[in-house]
């Protein structure tokens, strides 16, 4: 049982974890912290949090667990704001989509990565943001990756693992660098393709007609281009090396595909599409 949980950034992710822990009867008191007063008032009205503050130091002062779910670009400032008031036994975790940058931010502010800090990332979300979009089942049967360091306290890791399990998630552990490479491929690259495709089409002269005649495939493929621009700017900047490597691989794949199409090589196209279909069908079967 958590006596007092501080959620810094009560949006889709912070709000959903607060709701899930409340639904599972794992928490007594939840204090929310953020910048937008309207969002915090709504969070309190919805019963997601019990109290709010705009000041991260006030939020964490009496907390036994702190969950930071702000955009990545705000993490360093938040660490600086809480540094002097954190109790040594308070466990801190986060939900940021990139782990190397968060660990570097903690290192820069604290001078070392605090043993009670357990970096984390729920592999679950939607294209929507804010507490209005949060829901308690978001993490149910979804994966959460924790990336503890050698200096991470085993009890803090166990506590954060139990927290996500109580929210219904399956917890995996991996290194920070491996996490950032894997997520560049499976999450960050697909978001770039969706943003890039929609932006390209939106800039075409006849864009109204392009969108009018778009079919279901276009809608499915581009849902994630409705995601929060600030959050995705921060993810790109935080994972710039792994993501630019993946984008270079993908550009190469597209150049080859274009050449295959231009050459009218139907046999090669069939090979590519058959291989891709088999891989996706396996992935979907495995996900059930
Ligand atoms: N949206 C998604 O599907 C997923 C997002 N994430 C990660 O979770 C984090 C939060 O994302 P969302 O919940 O989607 O965003 P969101 O926009 O719904 O919520 C973020 C909240 O942080 C607050 N905030 C911004 N700057 C702040 C600051 N300096 N101090 C305190 N609060 C501040 C905002 O007011 C907002 O309420 C991000 O780091 C993102 O990379 C992880 C998994 C999935
Ligand atoms: O909306 C979707 O399908 C997503 O893929 C959400 C998402 C966004 C960022 C993450 O770090 C993890 C999941």
UniProtKB/TrEMBL annotation:
Pathway: Amino-acid biosynthesis; L-tyrosine biosynthesis; (4-hydroxyphenyl)pyruvate from prephenate (NAD(+) route): step 1/1
UniProt keyword list: Amino-acid biosynthesis, Aromatic amino acid biosynthesis, NAD, Oxidoreductase, Tyrosine biosynthesis
InterPro entries named in the record: 6-PGluconate_DH-like_C_sf (IPR008927), NAD(P)-bd_dom_sf (IPR036291), PDH_C (IPR046825), PDH_N (IPR046826), Preph/Arog_dehydrog (IPR050812), Prephen_DH (IPR003099)
EC number: 1.3.1.12
Domain of life (superkingdom): Bacteria
Gene Ontology terms, MF aspect: NAD+ binding; prephenate dehydrogenase (NAD+) activity; prephenate dehydrogenase (NADP+) activity
Gene3D superfamilies to which the protein is assigned, alphabetical: 6-phosphogluconate dehydrogenase C-terminal like domain, NAD(P)-binding Rossmann-like Domain
Enzyme class (EC, first level): oxidoreductase
Catalytic activity, as annotated: prephenate + NAD(+) = 3-(4-hydroxyphenyl)pyruvate + CO2 + NADH
Coiled-coil segments: none
PROSITE patterns (alphabetical): PDH_ADH
Sequence ranges assigned to domain Prephenate/arogenate dehydrogenase in this UniProt record: 3-288
Alphabetical GO biological process terms: tyrosine biosynthetic process
Family per similarity comment: Belongs to the prephenate/arogenate dehydrogenase family.
Protein name, as recorded: prephenate dehydrogenase
